[in-house]
Write a structure and sequence with these properties.
Blueprint: H1 2-19, E1 31-34, E2 43-49, E3 56-61, E4 72-78, E5 81-90, E6 97-102, E7 109-114, E8 118-125, E9 128-136, E10 146-154, E11 157-164, E12 173-182, E13 188-190, E14 194-198, E15 209-216, E16 221-229, E17 236-248, E18 254-267, E19 273-278, E20 284-289, E21 296-302
Parallel strand pairs: 5-9
Antiparallel strand pairs: 1-21, 2-3, 3-4, 4-5, 6-7, 7-8, 8-9, 10-11, 11-12, 12-13, 12-14, 15-16, 16-17, 17-18, 19-20, 20-21
């Protein structure tokens, strides 16, 4: 771990001196929360602060595919230590969960997204997550691979953002946005979908996942992670960027404006970030990695300021 951290610090310094890139990778430390490919962090949802206010609780999804494998855990994150507790999944088992988001205004309720576009509505109580209902995303096409999901609440209206992750120079990510509501029986229902293409400024390696997760700040900034993956043992590379802005009108109309050139907020060599969660009332983002055979790590970095 020490050798790995030294490499990250050196790489960040070189980027800062030679390329002028943000030096986000040298602020704070990554903390290990999983030791193998079954315990990496594919998505995070803020649940609340610890009683002393010094830590945060977050639900983490794992991209496991076999029956009986862990799908969901509770991470208690503090600087210097992390605790991980399993959450029992009660209902139809998803294959390859990649994102999770708390539903605004509905305490204990979450939407979790699998890579092929199935959205699961969950009610979490104690150490159990019950599947209330599930539905496919609208407009899924052949080859789509989803790793990101975010919710926005404005004036009593909800909107959802999600993206096909893309792959390298020949396949940009496709960012989707839609009004969101719920049927009386609990099923998520999506309105008209707006689509925008997105290409990451960093990393630029072959096969880069242009959007590996999405979070939205209180002011509507769209914060995304991007990741490069050379195989189950790495090397990995990641960045967190400001991609643009989203607004939701009083009538529920969703508008997404993407930047012509995304602003890179931080680069994170040797880690594959698949989760970014802006923490309410804080400039911090909670980041999570799925480093395949190397396990999973989390940390906070101040990337979500106004």
């Amino acid at each position: 771990m020490l050798q790995r951290m030294a490499s990250i610090t050196a790489a960040a310094a070189i980027l800062t001196m030679l390329a002028g890139a943000p030096a986000g990778a040298d602020a704070g430390q990554w903390q290990k929360v999983g030791g193998d490919a079954r315990s990496g962090v594919s998505g995070l949802a803020y649940e609340g602060r610890t009683a002393d206010g010094e830590g945060v609780y977050a639900l983490a999804v794992h991209d496991n595919k076999q029956s009986g494998q862990q799908r969901l855990s509770l991470i208690t994150h503090r600087e210097g230590s992390d605790g991980v507790s399993p959450i029992t999944w009660d209902g139809p088992e998803p294959v390859d969960l990649e994102a999770i988001e708390a539903v605004p205004g509905m305490p204990g309720e979450y939407l979790a997204l699998a890579s092929r576009g199935i959205v699961y509505r969950l009610k979490v109580s104690g150490s159990t997550a019950v599947v209330v209902d599930y539905t496919p995303l609208p407009g899924i096409t052949e080859g789509d691979d989803f790793e990101s999901f975010a919710l926005v609440a404005r004036d009593g209206k909800l909107a959802a953002l999600w993206a096909d992750r893309g792959a390298g120079a020949d396949r940009p990510a496709t960012l989707n946005a839609s009004p969101l509501s719920f049927a009386p029986w609990g099923q998520p229902q999506f309105g008209a979908v707006t689509r925008r293409s997105y290409v990451a400024s960093y990393p630029t390696a072959e096969g880069t996942r242009h959007i590996s997760d999405i979070s939205v700040t209180g002011s509507g900034r769209i914060i995304v992670s991007s990741a490069a993956d050379a195989g189950d043992d790495g090397p990995f590379d990641s960045a967190v960027s400001e991609a643009g802005r989203v607004t939701v009108s009083a009538a529920g109309r969703v508008r997404v404006t993407l930047a012509a050139s995304p602003t890179v907020l931080g680069t994170f060599p040797q880690y594959k970030i698949e989760a970014v969660e802006c923490l309410p009332g804080s400039p911090d983002a909670l980041l999570g990695t799925d480093d395949e055979n190397l396990g999973g790590y989390v940390r906070t970095v101040p990337l979500c300021g106004a």
